[in-house]
Amino acid sequence: xxxxxxxxxxxxxxxxxxxxxxxxxxxxxxxxxxxxxxxxxxxxxxxxxxxxxxxxxxxxxxxxxxxxxxxxxxxxxxxxxxxxxxxxxxxxxxxxxxxxxxxxxxxxxxxxxxxxxxxxxxxxxxxxxxxxxxxxxxxxxxxxxxxxxxxxxxxxxxxxxxxxxxxxxxxxxxxxxxxxxxxxxxxxxxxxxxxxxxxxxxxxxxxxxxxxxxxxxxxxxxxxxxxxxxxxxxxxxxxxxxxxxxxxxxxxxxxxxxxxxxxxxxxxxxxxxxxxxxxxxxxxxxxxxxxxxxxxxxxxxxxxxxxxxxxxxxxxxxxxxxxxxxxxxxxxxxxxxxxxxxxxxxxxxxxxxxxxxxxxxxxxxxxxxxxxxxxxxxxxxxxxxxxxxxxxxxxxxxxxxxxxxxxxxxxxxxxxxxxxxxxxxxxxxxxxxxxxxxxxxxxxxxxxxxxxxxxxxxxxxxxxxxxxxxxxxxxxxxxxxxxxxxxxxxxxxxxxxxxxxxxxxxxxxxxxxxxxxxxxxxxxxxxxxxxxxxxxxxxxxxxxxxxxxxxxxxxxxxxxxxxxxxxxxxxxxxxxxxxxxxxxxxxxxxxxxxxxxxxxxxxxxxxxxxxxxxxxxxxxx
Length: 621
Prior knowledge:
FAD; five-stranded parallel sheet; FAD/NAD-bd_sf; alpha/beta; oxidoreductase activity, acting on CH-OH group of donors
């Protein structure tokens, strides 16, 4: 195992002797990547090299403290700090997209919220042509990676965890899942009963296939050590001494090298990977496969830099075309979140206490480091999932099916042949299902300022005095789809994410209806009864930010229907390149996506192991 901040000539010679027998190269050291590396190296005859652009942040208190994530955003040692192009649908605002840049990837800097796709979310994948990826197929993979830690009786009484069915949960996986036993906030104790009083249904365990109602979500927090449980901690640290696992940090992947196999299939084989450290380029060879795990932004970037993508785009930047597939980088789909903010009485503390007072923030960090106590021990948990009938009751929308169909038909007429897989009709049908959620409502003890969200770190900063809370109305399955493509042949140049927020009228319609619903519930003045629907749409455009859940840019679909990878996660036109991360999701899901990333990685590991495979060099050299 070699874990380096840079490669000297001596180190590279040492690494070259190690990687001369490398079976698999994994591009990225993030959420899915380290689980894959851990699983593959269980076989002592398999050697794996992982190339990660960021550093190793194990035992960094900024990462370990569950409620410090906002302080990591836009810091280059933790975050790629991407930014979208200006969005017409959100009043021409650009959006900061934080993505993890360290071992563990975004699992090291996310909210720690842990939820689950609905049954229909996953069954959609099988219906779109991906056999073996349905809800029942994936259940075992969710259980495999996790250990569910039940709360104490005292904590159980506070959070009302009765909706959890332990029989549906994993009990011996590396990732720790719990209701944090840290200092609970006042709104976490009150949230579930408030939702019941509002008429929301009594929730069931999301692992049952449905998650309607309000509850305190599970979190990826290790209750024994009161710290974040994430990919580097769960899958890398216990296996870091394996002699068949090589981890290189602070290494920027520049491209894959390909060699054409002269066969009837005319596929291309990746022979190795080029990466850059300290301005110097190195190459590592792969005997079997190259596994791209760069996430929704970096995976299409790596493919395009390597010559896999739209021929016209690649030629524009002087890149040799290996596989002409214009689907690469398309189908970008994100969860949007629209905030309504309220000021609170002074006796109800919120995150402003920490963000606006450096002395108190330092005391909180010392309390965490010394005693594993205080406000930094607790991650956000309060949420609810609500169906379309809740945001659009019959009194307001007598014929929802016709309404939804008209918006879908209108979009398809203005965007002919844009979605050949038929996803719009499939998702529209799902929206009408009374057991499916169209919105996730999240309660946060902090103020949101969308005017500062062009940088992720600015989203929750403001200068207005007082303690604030935000009701976030988050989409579950946006129909708007954009793209991510390279802007240069330079691997250090950021791609240009364009999520095309609200380009589909149905997304804006649902957002507006959700705003009115939430205002009906939470407003203390008669404002919502006077708010017209067009005003709600304007509020959505001006106050929507990302929920940091982009997916889909290397979609798992038949190639003729917009696909980049097949149901084996193999990149079309190649013999030994797979993509294993959020970019393969063909449609979005209602969850905070980290749990599905782990499940996809578990299945991906099984697919790779089952393929085994004769390597390029043994077969062709």
